[in-house]
User: Which sequence fits this backbone?
């Protein structure tokens, strides 16, 4: 729920921050968050000095020419000038390398992404939606292999989370009445800042334009000074923090115009990302397409708690579509307008956030990026989860438990451990009510991408819906023995208040009843010593005088049989499409074809994720081999192994290449009436197996009951020669 947290934060803090406090905040971040690489800074300075030297030499040459100096004198000056120009060129080259990742890696990343995306689109992992009508930005269809990968990921998600933790799964409507999203804060605050092309009306996300401008300047403009480069880095580091006015001011200051037309832009203004609709034909019930699935769980809390035997902790889960009308979706599958979310709401007693199964994950070590490390410009470090919780870096065991479970989930899917980190939200990213938040970020060609948000949202959501609906979304802890407690009792004397405040009576009474214990005790002592107290009634917008006799304040002893409280919520929220896209990138590689004149694409999906577990084909188009292939296909179907059968007359090498490109881990080649070969995708090694065993072996392999090494050592085999398929 990160974006809402950020959005809520900027508007729930006590009024707009003054520009002075904002500036000092920004400056403090400037020092810690945007340190410029020493070499880059010195290169920028050296380049500026060199430019000055070239200019002054140029002037000297001109002066010599004007003074009609001797030819040798002028030639020597020109030589010196050319020498300086060469030196300048070499610094420029070094600086260019430093700002673009040192080795042209930006270009490599772009080329790699193109290769992945081309393969994904060509093999129908996904298709731009409504393509024949030229598509709509931010909307994608999943084609057959994409659907299968998604189904596998979701099925593993259910097994790993819902089944393992006995979570209560629900399935709520996407269409949501306004009142629900009003209570949650989405109607008022789920916004991004937008600017419009003043002539064409085309919309852009204001922060994206500023971000692109700064990145472009940093990477391509070698003439900017070291100070200016620091400033651009600072802007990038504080982008999330800028108000509409500040963003607008920066856009004006840098002269940023519409990227497509170069027309001037409007001032930034908030745009609500929810798709609005109305429910029913009359148009009187406003609604929205849900921007997240979580609210469906919160509004069902009372029933789910009852279903769970009125016991805490428990978790509810939901998988479903979420809709966000992103202003200018970019980054392919990573930022879309409709996507699948899988969310867990784990309800826990705020006074006890321990987790009985934390010991099962506490030994895990992986990249963690606590906020202090981010603030001091360090990188993520491999950290033991148990230690991070013990030290308080992670706020509590339950949050830590889910971080560990998310790590196990993502790495089992095939996400590379070295490109997965857990990044803690900076203080300015978290809403005031959140206790702690960590994002599972996966590195891909677009950089580090938030794929799972894991947040301790305290009691905020249940409180909000309790207040709006009037239904108490609370839990109770029954005491074994009744406990004696001292309770504050505030009794406004309505008759006296009515006489004194007439029409405002109700608001004064409500304000008195809402006093905190500290406020009430202060008023009591003031009434006793002075006979009156000045009291601010916010709903009236003024201070009134409360006189002795208008309110009774006392503390009374009471017996309590239970403690009633609003549970805290720990929420892991998975963007399924983002995880899948990163998985595609982490699984993709190229290898040369047998004759070496072609690069072949491979997706090295683990069997768990692979869209199809196995291909079957006859070695050549012969009826007896085709019959064997058909027979094996029947055996695989009976064993529940998804497979395809390829009877085409293509060479075996071509057929292998086609299945490798879909990430099919095993291929069975029928070349005899008694036994067959199974080939493993990445090693291209092969084993000989009798037909009667083949289905059970492939089933064991794809269900990860057995490894390829197990099968390899137990059956006759041969290794691919020089990495080539023997049969190509
Ligand atoms: P949020 O509620 O903004 O924290 O989003 C929850 C998760 O949804 C994020 O961790 C992302 O993985 C995913 N997500 C958010 N916005 C989008 C989007 N526009 N397209 C695809 N996935 C998204």
Assistant:
């Amino acid at each position: 729920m990160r974006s809402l947290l950020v959005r809520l934060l900027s508007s729930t803090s006590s009024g707009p921050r003054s520009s002075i406090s904002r500036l000092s905040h920004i400056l403090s971040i400037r020092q810690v968050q945007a340190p410029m690489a020493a070499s880059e800074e010195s290169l920028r300075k050296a380049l500026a000095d060199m430019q000055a030297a070239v200019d002054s030499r140029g002037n000297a040459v001109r002066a010599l020419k004007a003074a009609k100096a001797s030819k040798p004198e002028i030639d020597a000056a020109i030589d010196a000038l050319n020498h300086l120009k060469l030196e300048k060129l070499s610094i420029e080259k070094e600086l260019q390398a430093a700002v673009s990742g040192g080795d042209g890696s930006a270009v490599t990343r772009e080329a790699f992404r193109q290769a992945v995306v081309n393969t994904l689109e060509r093999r129908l992992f996904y298709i731009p939606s409504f393509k024949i009508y030229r598509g709509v930005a931010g909307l994608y269809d999943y084609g057959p292999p994409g659907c299968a990968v998604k189904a596998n990921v979701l099925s593993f998600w259910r097994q790993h989370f819902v089944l393992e933790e006995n979570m209560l799964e629900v399935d709520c409507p996407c269409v949501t009445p306004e009142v629900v999203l009003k209570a949650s804060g989405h109607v008022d605050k789920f916004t991004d800042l937008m600017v419009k092309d003043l002539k064409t009306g085309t919309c852009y996300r204001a922060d994206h334009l500023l971000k692109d401008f700064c990145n472009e300047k940093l990477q391509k403009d070698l003439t900017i000074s070291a100070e200016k480069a620091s400033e651009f880095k600072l802007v990038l580091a504080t982008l999330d923090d800028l108000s509409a006015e500040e963003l607008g001011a920066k856009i004006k200051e840098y002269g940023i115009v519409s990227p497509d037309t170069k027309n001037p832009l409007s001032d930034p203004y908030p745009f609500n990302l929810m798709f609005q609709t109305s429910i029913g034909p009359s148009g009187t019930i406003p609604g929205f397409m849900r921007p997240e699935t979580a609210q469906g769980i919160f509004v069902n809390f009372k029933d789910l708690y009852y279903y769970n035997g009125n016991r805490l902790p428990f978790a509810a889960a939901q998988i479903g579509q979420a809709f966000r009308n992103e202003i200018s979706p970019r980054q392919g599958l990573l930022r879309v307008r409709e996507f699948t979310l899988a969310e867990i709401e784990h309800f826990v007693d705020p006074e006890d956030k321990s987790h009985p199964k934390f010991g099962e994950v506490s030994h895990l070590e992986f990249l963690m990026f606590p906020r202090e490390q981010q603030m001091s410009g360090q990188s993520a470090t491999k950290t033991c989860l148990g230690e991070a919780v013990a030290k308080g870096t992670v706020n509590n065991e339950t949050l830590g438990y889910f971080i560990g479970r998310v790590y196990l989930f993502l790495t089992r899917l095939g996400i590379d451990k070295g490109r997965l980190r857990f990044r803690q939200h900076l203080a300015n990213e978290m809403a005031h009510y959140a206790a702690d938040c960590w994002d599972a970020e996966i590195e891909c060609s677009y950089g580090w991408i938030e794929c799972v948000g894991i947040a301790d949202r305290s009691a905020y959501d249940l409180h909000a819906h309790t207040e709006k609906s009037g239904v108490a979304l609370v839990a109770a802890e029954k005491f074994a023995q009744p406990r004696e407690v001292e309770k504050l009792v505030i009794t406004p004397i309505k008759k006296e208040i009515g006489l004194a405040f007439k029409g405002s009576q109700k608001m004064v009474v409500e304000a008195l009843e809402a006093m905190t214990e500290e406020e009430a005790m202060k008023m009591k002592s003031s009434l006793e010593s002075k006979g009156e107290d000045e009291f601010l009634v916010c709903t009236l917008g003024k201070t009134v005088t409360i006189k002795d006799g208008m309110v009774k304040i006392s503390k009374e002893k009471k017996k309590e049989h239970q403690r009633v409280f609003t549970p805290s919520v720990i929420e892991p929220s998975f963007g399924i499409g983002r995880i899948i896209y990163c998985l595609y990138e982490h699984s993709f590689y190229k290898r040369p074809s047998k004759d070496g004149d072609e690069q072949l694409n491979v997706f090295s999906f683990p069997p768990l994720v692979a869209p199809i577990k196995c291909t079957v084909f006859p070695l050549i188009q012969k009826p007896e081999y085709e019959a064997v292939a058909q027979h094996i296909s029947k055996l695989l179907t009976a064993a529940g192994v998804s497979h395809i059968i390829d009877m085409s007359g293509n060479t075996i090498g071509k057929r292998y290449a086609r299945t490798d490109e879909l990430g099919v881990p095993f291929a069975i080649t029928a070349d005899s009436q008694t036994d067959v070969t199974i080939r493993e995708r990445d090693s291209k090694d092969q084993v000989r197996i009798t037909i009667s065993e083949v289905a059970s072996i492939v089933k064991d392999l794809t269900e990860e009951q057995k490894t390829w090494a197990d099968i390899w050592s137990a059956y006759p085999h041969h290794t691919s020669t020089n990495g080539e398929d023997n049969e190509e």
